[in-house]
Amino acid sequence: MPVSSQRGDARPVPNQLLADLSRRLECLSVSGADLFSATLTVPELDGVLLPPSLPDLWSWLRPGDGLALIASGTAFEKVCSGPEALDEALRGLDWTHLDLDESGGEPVAFLGHGFGGPDPSGLPPALLRVPRLMLRNYKGRCDLVFSHAGVATADELHALWIKEAERLLDALGRPVPPASPVNLIRLNEMPSPDTFRRRVRTATDSIAAGRVEKIVLSRRITVAAPRLFRPERLVRELAARHPSCAIFTVGFGGRTLVAASPERLVACTGRQVDSYALAGTAPSDPADPFLGGRLLSGAKDRHEHRLVVGWISSVFNELCDNVQVPSEPRLMILGQLEHLWTPIAGTLKPGAGFLQAAQALHPTPAVAGLPLAEARTLLDELGESRSGWYTGAFGWVDRTGDGEMAVVLRCALLDGDRAEVAAGAGIVAASDPESEFTETELKLRTMLDTLRSA
After folding, report:
1. Fewest beta carbons within 10 Å, which of 137, 244, 250, 316?
2. Residue 7 has pLDDT above 70, yes or no
């Protein structure tokens, strides 16, 4: 059964791999725990860094770091009322782990949620999922992590896990062919261009009146293609174009959310945490060597960026010791766009954890506004709605509490031959309706250009 290493060479998986997995799993049984996981190291799959074609695909990739988490099947899933319930759901699990090689990493749960409030797409407010089988590839090491919820005999567990392994290996053995770019048809747009411009004017009036300092307005459009979108093909396009981003897929039955997010909400390793302040955007033009300098020195973008940096820093000061905030932003260049970027880090205080930090940080002023409560009220008054988890958060957390979540940006909700995409712009006192509309068009184009090859 050939499985591509995705480094340009195709290496066969030895025929005995399934037999070896079967032998090593056949004596395991579960009793007493809500959730049980077992980890095996599989050098035969080292190098698999992109997801195959699987129904209900869930994955998390950081191509630049060589990290891939690819899920197959579901061992445990819980729909939650909102992000605040995710921590409670995870803490309530009796999760037992057996590392069969005594050197693998901890099992992982995927988790995500929307922006808050009703979601026109109908996606759940928040979701926690532990896959039945997860392939984890990181720094030249590949593990298969098998999981099961509830009591099972050794024979039942063995049959479930081997069936899932066969399904994943079969998918890995089927190449995902590239596709020629196609034209996309815009079907609808929310809000209309004129309505968006009016909202910008209303927002700047509210800022002038002292009601808010900043507010983030968004647009979403639905497009159609002459063929079905393939989530795994879109992931490969995004990974090639944006290797520094967090690239993830979240399957919801017949629909799949795919994103390439540059904005880290929070990452945690041990007690060390960090987050990205990302605000202030301009087109990236290699022919204009002064463009980055103008973005770094522009009063409007610097003001917008300082608001986000100040807010994230204040959250970190509540949760962390040894908070580190660079005095000047950097440039993050992503394809056709460049952004002002300030990474902020700290050490979690006793009692604080990864999911508490994620909850405290979302939504940041980069996707909502300041002050937060007043901004959200104004968004409701303007008729702003977020769909398909856009500007929510998605990521993973392991059994010990290490993990990472990204803000859901540069995303598309795929549904057959249809795709919903969204983009936003931060509005401050100096914002101009036409400039903000142009910024959202540039951001939309980033995903639309990629979708043409998906």
Report:
1. 244
2. no
